[in-house]
Specification:
heterotrimer, A alpha/beta, B alpha+beta, C mainly alpha, B: alpha+beta, Beta-Lactamase, five-stranded antiparallel β-sheet, 58% helix, rod-shaped, C: mainly alpha, Growth Hormone, Chain: A, 20 helices, 7 strands, 74% helix, 6% strand
Chain lengths: 327, 238, 686
Amino acid sequence: MMRRRPLIAAMTLSAPGVARARSRPRILMMLYRGWEEACDGFRDYLASRRRDVELVVADAGEDLSRVPDMVRQAEAMRPDLVYLWGTTLTMAALGPWDGHDPDRHLTGMPVVFNIVTDPVRNRVVRSRPAPGRPVTGTEYIAPVAVQLRAMDAYRPFRQAAAVFNPRERNSVVTIEEMSELLAARGGVLDALPVPVVDGRLQAAAIPRLIAAARARGAEWLYIPPDTYLNDQRAVLTGAALHEGLPSFAATERFVAFADALAGLVSRYYSVGAFTGFKAEQILFGGVRPEAIPVETLSRFSYLLRMDTARRLRAYPPVALLRIAEPV
Amino acid sequence: MTGPSFATRIALLLTALAVLACMLVTALNTLKFEKLLVAQQQRIVGTIGADLVDTFERGMMIGVRLADVPAAQALVDRAFGRDPDLRRITLSDAGGRILFDTERVRIGDAAEAALLPAGQARRYARRDGLDWVGMPVVNSFGQREGSLLLGYGRAGITDRLTAIALAMAGPGLAALLVGLPLGWLAVFLAARPTRRLFAHLAASLSDSGQAMGRHGAVLDDAERRLEAIAARAPERAA
Amino acid sequence: MTDDAGPTLRRLVRHLSFIAVAVLLGTVAAVSVAALHAFDREVRPAMEREAAVIGEVVANPIERALGLGIPLEALVGAEDYLAGMAASQPAVAYLVLTDLAGRPRAAAGPAASGFQPIDVITAEGPGSRALPGIDETARPVAAPGGRPQGWLLVGVGRAAVDDIIVDTRWDLAIVLLVGVLLAMEVLRFALDRGVIAPLTMIEAVVRRLDTGDCTRLAEAGSADEAGRVARAANALVRRLGDRWAHLQWLATEAASTGAGAARDAAAVIATLGDRLRFRDGGAVVDAAPPAASAARLPLFLFVVAEQLSTSFIPLLGRDLARATRGGFSPDLLAALPIAVFVAAVAFATPYGGRLTARRGPRDAVLVGGGVAALGYLAAALADDVTQFALARMLCGIGYAVLTIACQAQMAMAARQGRLARTLGGFTGAVMTGAVCGTAIGAVIADRLGYGATFLASAGLVVVVLGLALRAIPRGMTDPVAAGQGVVAGARAAFGNARFTAVLLLAAVPAKIVLAGFIFYLAPLALRDAGLSQAAVGRNVMLYGLCMLPAIALGGWLADRARMGGGLIWGGAVLNGGALLMIPLLPEVAALPIAIAVTGAAQGLASAPMLAVVAGMPGRSTPLLLSFLRLGERFGSVIGPFAAAWLMMRGDAVWAMGVLGGVTALTGIGYALVQRRATRANAAIAS
């Protein structure tokens, strides 16, 4: 869940007044949608490790046009580390790794990013094991193969359907990968792009798409990490439930705040803590950011929506209940 | 035949050997059973600990730090009730500070560093009369977030071993009490022909014995002749 | 000896042996049976507790499911879940989930197919059941705070407990075997000292008395029958002596009467002197003849002490070698302590012989025992492979000095035509000690650890020293042997082709197999096959058990059937064949068979080998035997290294096969050499 908090100009972890001038690293936190759980995780991790840091927060308020100002502010401040939240802000503040412009992008300071989707394809870093610039961070989507295994653990299947936004490269690539993985094990993915009419996505067509897929024998509806679908989550998951089709999501909100049956998701809080771990390595472990790989969590949260399970009469296997979190 | 006999020595030797063998068997059996029971108890405590670690790790997945896992103290207290030999359960953070403990006054103290697991592997240790299992609690990015320490006593094992030892000692003593007198009797019976042999030898060496008779006669004869020589009239010098 | 003394003593030994075995068997068996019963009774509650804890852990997600409103009959994947849990808990025989009426809904675990449905369910539930091989505990399954909806039955297998009980039976057999062998040795020692030796001495005195020799007294130290008889004999000698003194006085008196009387008296005394002999100044105590058996018990106990650690030295060496940082391979370093020990034995043997010749067996035993005890203490404290090898070097020096001293004592004490039998006794004591030590050592190491076993060895050596102080007489030095040169003897021995053939084609290969296979490869392979320390020791012990009867059989066949040569090469071929068949069978079956056959084959060949060497004309037998021993030691040194080297190039099984092949080939080589020699002899004869 994302709580909006008023923009906090500066906050410190330790008690005010005991600040030691230089021994205390300063972290500039550049946020896109205000302070939320990932930031909590980041802050709490450093606090639990008793790392005394000064956090300075700058919020873009979902307005990309403010980013150049924020970058200039960072250049003037020269913090020990910059924390970036979200894919969009990160791309705007850092630029592509092979097209860096010192006038527009953050230069000469270590950066950790948080809650970013596919930083390699988005050209934030050259590769995951070797970022290729003084930038590292965490991803929050579970690898597609892991998601596939998670679906199979709930209910073995051969055929799945996936609705996606054809304009979002994120979704397209995820769907391609899922399709290949399924084909490799003898399965089929029924890829269902949301139709575009006059340049506009037709949300009203989604229930029809799902009913047709169900009729073709789909056993699961897979929901990729997709911003557009996130906005349409009630329609999407409601239609699947209506068709008696179990739905599986890669992000939390489809399960937590809609009717999807299950999802393998990263908790923002945990991802934030992981980012805190990487920040700790840079600030206190003497490790250069370009030597720290970009990673996802090694364990994800398996969310279950029990009222959906009851309505579908698709109960989770007992073994899954050992690790799953019912919502 | 009176007086001490070689048979006594043999019987004592046999007694010593039998007692030694019984003690050896008792000691070896007890050690073996102890090993088995200790391994079993370690398994039980390990199962309880692994389940608790599992619960904590799952608790952290909802997006909290280890210290904020809901109802953590209750979980620790409930696990504590699962085995009567458990003496203490401690959950510490990555720095070794105690977060939850069945002995609540210890919360906030530093946990014993020698008991904490090394890296991601369990640690088994013995300290202050308790056996300890130290298990890592790992967070969602594979880092040790804290450690679970379970301390348990051996009262149950000691009771069982005492019962086994007593059960062994009873029949063992009975067997010795019956077997040894029988053994002694048999030894003395078996020694009788040899003792007779000795007696025979001793008799042949006595004053009335054969050797004395023969040599005595020779000596008697010599004595008679010497006395006869001595009895002759003194000679005159030639 | 008096006419009935021999049979009487033989009967005594037989009867006492029988009694000792019966008493030991009875008491030890009573204790063990009671132990197994008590264990069986006491282990059950512990197993139920384990089952209860497992049940709670396993039931947890099922109860979560019920709490989430999933009905018991709609549970998905219960069987898979139970199977996963059963696989992660080694003690579990089965996990069965039933409904309230006891009908199974899901079952998993290695013994799930043998699950017997519950007949009776009371208000408290099915309760606990003891089924064949399985203890079962039931647990209600309910949503948190709700009513039970079914039962979870946890069956815990008794296999682990049954294994323990089988193991305990083995231990029992070993303790009994060791106890009986030890009792026999101690009994032999006590009877020799308390009955046979005094009787021999008294008989000697009586025999002298018979012939009129009254110069010697019997030793009358003990208070038992022997002492009483000795005192009676001494009284007789003294009385005769008194009368002799009286007669001498009478003769002096008579002589004073005149020259003729003096002549007559002197004639009487001279006549008497023909019949009876007396010593001027009274009879003296005859030193007891040195008993060959005096050294046997100390030797036996010392070999026990040495062999306590046999079964685990390669394992300990490997552990220590792995802990040691260095450029050498741990497998090679692990062989170092064994090789150092054997090398120390080889090089210390001539010096031990010299020491024995100069100072006597007693002093040599004390020196050797002292050095060995230090070695065991050092081995107990060693914490890297170098220290351990040094400690084993001390043990080796002690072993060499002590064994050569005991052998010399026995050889010197047994003169009149009993040398072969006495030296057979030496081999017997060493082998029996080896069997006892290996067996009991493995058991002790399994329970108390390696360090404690070395401490036990040190303690036993202290007992050996005490026995040697009491039992082995002083003296018995050999100035001639002490001055003998070693180099000249070596030149003479190795110039003899037959000796060289026996040494290189039979004796050395046998020792390479002994040290490389029995003491190195086999324990490692058995341990890696998952056997316990005690089980490894039992397997290694097979070698000695099979060798003991084979030695006797081999000696008998060589003497009676005159087939010594055939036994030598036949044994080698048999031995090689046994090692070559290891790759053909599963290791756990093949290794014990190969160990047993190796023991039998080497036992059969050992006596003929000694006979061939000892029977070579025109050579000094002791010198040849000592070089044979030196050669064998050399084989023992290279054995472990050869095995380790072979293992680095393949694996343990391959190394065993190569050793076997080489052994068989040397056997065939010896057969060819022997045939040529026989033909040559025949040609000369014709």
